[in-house]
Structures are given as C-alpha cells and as structure tokens.
Amino acid sequence: MNKVRVLAVALDFDGTILDSNSLKADCFGQIFAPFGQTSAQYATTYHLRHLSQPRRSKISSIAQELGLNLNDRELEELSELFGDLVLDQILECSLVPGVSDFLEWAKDKWPLYVCSATPHGELKQILRSIGLEGYFTGVFGHPTSKEEALDQIATSLGCSSSRVLMIGDSDADREAAINVGAGFHLVGDEPLTSYRELILRDGMFR
Q: Which end of the chain is flanked by fewer CB atoms within 10 Å, N or C?
C-alpha cells in the first residue's frame, strides 16, 4: 500500500487532549441523580460507552432508555446544567500524558485542529482556559460532525482527506476517519507511548 504524507493533524478533545472523560461521566451521573441512583449509574455508564455522541442527543437517549418523560425544555435544562458543571470543574483535569510534547513538536510541522462532539463555543472556551487555543489552526465542535470537520480541513488545504491524520481515543473517532478516508492513530490505554510513537515515526506517514 502506498504511504501518504500527512498535511494536517486533527485531534479529538476528551481523552485525547484533556483527561476529562471521567469528569464528564461524573457530571452525567450528577444531572440524572435526581431521578434516582440507578438512573445516575446508567447515565455514567452510557456516557463512557458513547463518548463521541453529541451531548444533547446523549441526554435524550439516556432519558428515553430510562423511561423518563422529559420534554424539550427539560432536556435542554439538563444539557445546560451539564455544561455548567463541566465548566466549573474542567480546570481540575490534567492533560493527557504526552500531548503537551506532541503539540510542541507538531505545531510548526502541520496545521493542527480539534474535532470534538463538545459544543463549539464551550470547546473554544475550555481551550482558551487551559492555554491551548494558540496551538490550533481551527476548532470544530458540535453541531459539526467529525466527518464534516475532516472534510472541511481537507477542502481548506486543497487535498484529499487521506492526507489528514485523525488522533482519537475511541472507536467512533476511528470510524469518523475511516468514513472520509482519513488516517487514524489511536491514543490507547498508554497515551504517553501512543504520542511518543507519533513523534518517533519518521516522516509521519499513515
């Protein structure tokens, strides 16, 4: 198979840049706690199994599967409460091991992007708060899907999606890359090793 040189790198956010998956799982448990401990536990588990599902859709799915008869206003209130909880606690999260070194190494080599299911405005605010916004040429959050974001990145560079590398921590990230023909690198259970592999990869080929 021919190797394709990477022209841009896109990173997922939660679990790839910021070690925030556990925090967000806890926040899902908190917003569903008024419906009972079982509901809270289910919401936490659901989040961890559907990391890349947009928040509003996730909350609606959880409510439906729990048999909660919530109207649109109530679902939106839960979504807003979740966002407030996250923003109150997000600065307590650490960066994923290895990502700081990777960003410093990569920032002058390729345009870097964030592609996340986190709402766009909130994502920008978090990146600014943790001092990382300056690393990225572009930031894509909900409602733009990861597939759409990868396509937009390729279009902006006048290249095919195969020349964009997606870095993520979930099967959904991998599927998004596959769906548009982009490359993919998994940040697995040992993220420090995963990022070091990229830094050591000669020429950064897919």
A: N
